[in-house]
Amino acid sequence: MMLIPAHHFRDIERKPEYLQPEKCVPPPHPSPVGTMWFIRDGCGIACAVVTWFLVLYAEFVVLFVMLIPSRDYVYSIINGIMFNLLAFLALASHCRAMLTDPGAVPKGNATKEFIESLQLKPGQVVYKCPKCCSIKPDRAHHCSVCKRCIRKMDHHCPWVNNCVGENNQKYFVLFTMYIALISLHALIMVGFHFLHCFEEDWTKCSSFSPPTTVILLILLCFEGLLFLIFTSVMFGTQVHSICTDETGIERLKRKHQPRERTGSWKSVKETFDGDFSLNWFNPFSGLRHPKPLSDGDWVRQVASLSDTENTETTEEQSEQRKDEDSVEVIHE
Predict the structure, then answer these.
(1) Long-range contacts at 246-252 (CB < 8 A, ≥ 24 apart)
(2) Residue 129 appears among annotated catalytic residues
(3) Active-site residue identified among 157, 163, 197, 205
(4) For the segment 134-166, what is each residue's pLDDT rounded down to a tens digit?
(5) pTM of the shown model
């Protein structure tokens, strides 16, 4: 059961039509275990395809422009294995981040029968999302793209066509890390290849013509630099969010909704499934089977009932907050 700051109710829409659980249809039957999670969003699918295309383009240039034509076989084998391993782990992490349920709250469970079954005591509340008609546990937020409430939602990332939430944050962190590593590796190899070609005859350092080789290398250099900066920043922000136990959305709302945080190491272990090991870096480990939420997870405790009674919103503020949570309060 979570304690809610009293002033949090000033940000809650109290319009009567959002407080009618009878409008919610009964929740659908839970999907069978192993059902694939996939968001049918055109923009997200296009971004995911572009991500794979750019990684495969880097593979093509690294292998067929730089490594295979090289006469240094040891250099080619070592760098080829290293680059392909990192690229494989990056794409595997991308698939896991995209196809893993990020922590969706059961849809349509804000029914009158279910709320009554919680047997709310005086001072207890439940939050209901008017968009997906779900009861929202603490730290859950509604995603307009996924059309679901996501537990511990950090943000929606179009590059993985999914929300980054409680169940797939590890895979998103690994994806950004491995993309940053292959980008750095590609930039280093491009630099060495240019030096080699300047010292040797350009016609001997690649199986392509010199103009084609230069164009391919410049494009790879631009791609690697862009992705290195972008993914390094994303990796840093995600690690910071995990260590501070504060999602991106919670950081934006910090001034209005302060909350108690857990220890940084505990949050890291929860995200990466246990104590430090090589499995932290393995996108195939940590098959998440989240435990079902208990009745206590749905219910929150208000800090002061008087604040729920004295909550006032102007007509203009109500229009601006139509999509905010509604709250079911039990008074003494």
Answers:
(1) 247/139, 247/152, 247/153, 247/154, 247/155, 248/154, 248/155, 249/141, 249/153, 249/154, 249/155, 250/139
(2) no
(3) 157
(4) 888 888 899 999 999 999 999 999 999 999 999
(5) 0.81
